[in-house]
Amino acid sequence: MTNTTSRSLHCGEHMEIRVLVATAYSMFSISGTLANVLVIYLVCSFKKLKTTSNAFIVNGCVSDLLVCAFWMPQEAILVSTGRVEHPTYRAFMEGVFFLWMTVSLLSHSLIALNRFVLITKLPTVYHTVYQKRNTEWMIAMVWVLPLAFLLPWLFGQRPHEISLHCQQLRLFVFLGQEIPMASSYTAILSAVTILSQTAILFHCYFRIFRKVQVSLKRVSVLNFQVVHNLPCSCPRKDKRLGLYVLIVCCVFSLTTEPFAWSVLYGLFQPLPRGLETSSWLLLCLLFVLNPFIYTWKNEEFRRSFRAVVGGELWKSAAVSVDPVVQTISQNDP
User: Fold this and answer.
1) Is CATH 1.10.4030.10 what the domain over 17-311 is classified as, yes or no?
2) Could you give the 3-state DSSP secondary structure of residue 279?
3) How far is the C-alpha of 153 from the C-alpha of 285, rounded, in Å?
4) What phi, psi does 218 have (nearest 5°)?
């Protein structure tokens, strides 16, 4: 009787946190699903958006969409109802989330590396590296590598290692009194992945900014393409580029770094529940913000979005020449 009472108290003492997380999951799920679907739809619908850089953005949006549309809703239901999951299902969902999260993080690196080669290297180098076959292999490896690391962990699970007495928040990577020790594997992989992606992002964008500052060629902040024949003095564009790079780096760092360092510290010492939950929700917020940080300053995405909102895309089906493409071509310098 004492054990049952103490267990019930322990399960209910974090009710406010569970309500907060369930609400956050619901909001993230709706907004993230709409944003990621919109980006994928625009790229698939407009020829001018079908570029190598946007292919990497779409790859990240696909993984983010899976998290927002499939993982977050069921987590919101489980957290709000307090229903205890089957151990096998819990392990499976932990692995699925780790796969989608890692693909999303690796997509950030592919985008940064693509822009780095595009801006700092010769056009011949860029076209050689980012041929269609090479691009397809890069995207495929982003999915294969996390799966290769994940399968041994999944097959090594045993039910008694992941059994829980009551429903807990799915903070997989934190080790606590009732969090399974098997999660330390995904904890270490998650932290290493985040820290390595942060280093790649900062290196690529710092080199891009340095290149723009010292080169006669300036970079358009709207579409991250090399612009020729611009005047040597272009401080306003430099400032806009610097602000854009700073925003991308800050959003990625603020949403991932607290989580990574909390994970590493939590492997050795217990963390306050509020700190764990805050860093976890910041990481989940990244899946919602990804479509915005890569498209909000892209003029082609803006034109395509205005075309969809204005109904021009639907009108184009009734004519032989697409007026949207024609309008974009006429407005391009």
Assistant:
1) no
2) helix
3) 26
4) -105, 160
